[in-house]
Amino acid sequence: IILTTVGVLLVGILFMAIFVTVMVKPIRLLVNGVSAIAAGNLDQKINIKRSDELGDLTDAFNDMAKSLREKEVIKGAFSKYVTKSVVDRILQHKDGLKLGGEKKVVTVFFSDIRGFTPMAEILSAEEVVHLLNEYFTAMTAIIFKYEGTLDKYMGDAIMAIYGAPIDMADHAERAVLASIEMGEKMKELQAKWKMEGKREVNIGIGINTGEVVVGNIGSNERMEYTAIGDNVNLTQRLESVAEKGQILISAATYERVKHKVEATMLDPIKVKGKVEKVVAYSVMGLKT
Q1: I want to staple 123 with a disulfide (CB 3.0 to 4.6 A). Which of 10, 73, 127, 235 is the partner?
Q2: Closest CA to 149 of 73, 85, 203, 219
C-alpha cells in the first residue's frame, strides 16, 4: 500500500510539473513581452500556438505589438514634417493615410530668400549655416503653428503644404495667415541681424490653392511625403516673381481668403510654363 501510494504521488507530481510547465511558460513569455514593450522595445512576438484561452491571449498580445509598431512607423515618418497635434490625428485616423499618391485640393506654400547666392559668396560657410538654421527654425515653427506640413528645404527655399495629409477646410486661410506672421517674424530677425552687423535678408512668398497629387513618392529604399502637379509649379512661379517682403497669392487662394485678408489685385503676370498670364494678388495684411 505504501509503495503504491508513493508511486501514485510521484506520478501525480510528475503530471503536475508537466502541467505547470505547460501553463507557466506562455504566461512567463507574456509577462516578459509586456515588460519589454513597457521599456520601449516594440519588436515583440510570442510564437506559441494554442487553441485555448492562453492562445487567444497570445494572439491578442501579438496584434497589440504589431499595432504599436505600425503607429511608431507612422509617427516617425511624419514627426519631422508636421506638428505633434497633426501626428496624433494621423494615428487616430491612419486608415485615411494612403501610401503612394492621391489627388487632393490643398494650398501649397513656397518661400525663398532674396539675394541669397551673392550673400553666401561673401559669408563664411559657418555664417551661412548659422543664418539658415536660425531662419528655418523660426519659419518652420510658424508653419507648424498653423498645422502645415513641411515638405522640404531646397537650399534657402521652403516648401510646405496645408491640407495634407490631414484634411483642413480652411487650408488656404492657414497658409496665408502663416505667411503674414512670417513677414512679421522676418522684421524681428532683420532687426536682430542688423544689430549683429549682418546683411539684410528678405524673402518672397508664393501661395496657390488647387488639386495636386500628394503622398509618399520615391522608391522602396527612399521616399518622401510631397506634392506634385501643375499647381505646385504655379506656386513656385508666383514665389519667383514676388518682390522682397511680398506675399503673392493666386486667384484660387484669394477666393478662399478674401473675407479675411486685404489684398491688391496685380496686373496679370506672365509665368514660365503658362501660355496665359496669371492673375495674382499681393497680400497687404488682415482685414480690420
Answers
A1: 127
A2: 85
